[in-house]
Structures are given as structure tokens and as C-alpha cells.
Amino acid sequence: MPIQSVTSISPQAAHRVSFDARQSLRSQLTSMIAEALAERQLSQVDAARMCDTDQPTLSKILAGRKQNASSEKLLCWLMALGWDVEIRLKRSAGVGKPGVMLDE
Asked: Is the dihedral of CA 81, 87, 92, 95 positive or negative?
């Protein structure tokens, strides 16, 4: 499976990453959650139970209202839905060229 570039982020500390970059990452993770539900033919109720949340919360996030969904929470949900999550950090080869990569 190819590695997909989700978004480029600035070389500053993670707490200084732009709002747009965080939103883009959360959007990609949310899409992967929706894909996992479709692949496994799970209802939102069953998926919410697996993710240790409630169906209205899952529904809101899948509908694009992600303001209360941290990337960490979304990653945990993906793991609960059967995805393996691996986080790798390495120094960037070029100045200002770091990125967040997801392997689908």
C-alpha cells in the first residue's frame, strides 16, 4: 500500500501547527473511520460501542463536526476498528518540508 501524504506541517513544535493542518489530518482520519465502518459493514451503534463512545458523538464526527475530536481520539477509534497505527518520526531531509504521512 502506498504512503499517502496527508498534509505538510511547519517545522515548529506540534502545539504551533496551524489550525488548517490539524483539521486536514482529522479529516483524513475521519474518512478512514468511515471507510472502516463501510468495509466491516458496521452500524454506527456497533462502531460507537467498539470505540467506547456513543452513536450521536460518532455521527457528529462522521458528519464533519470534528471540533471536539482530537487526532489522538480518532487514532484510538481506528485501532478499535481494527487498524494498526504506527507513528514514525524522522528528521526532515529539507528545511521546512516535514509532513504527516498515512499508509492506507
From this structure: positive
Give residue 24's identity as a one-letter amino acid code: S
pLDDT digits (tens, 9 = 90+) for 9-21: 444 444 455 566 6
Angle at which helix 71-80 crosses helix 19-40, to 10 degrees, equals 10
Residue by residue, DSSP assigns the chain as --EEEEEE--SS-GGGS-HHHHHHHHHHHHHHHHHHHHHHT--HHHHHHHTTS-HHHHHHHHTT--TT--HHHHHHHHHHTT----------SSTT--EEEEE-
CB 81 within 8 A of CB 44: no
C-alpha cell at 31: 474518512
pTM reported for the whole predicted model: 0.69
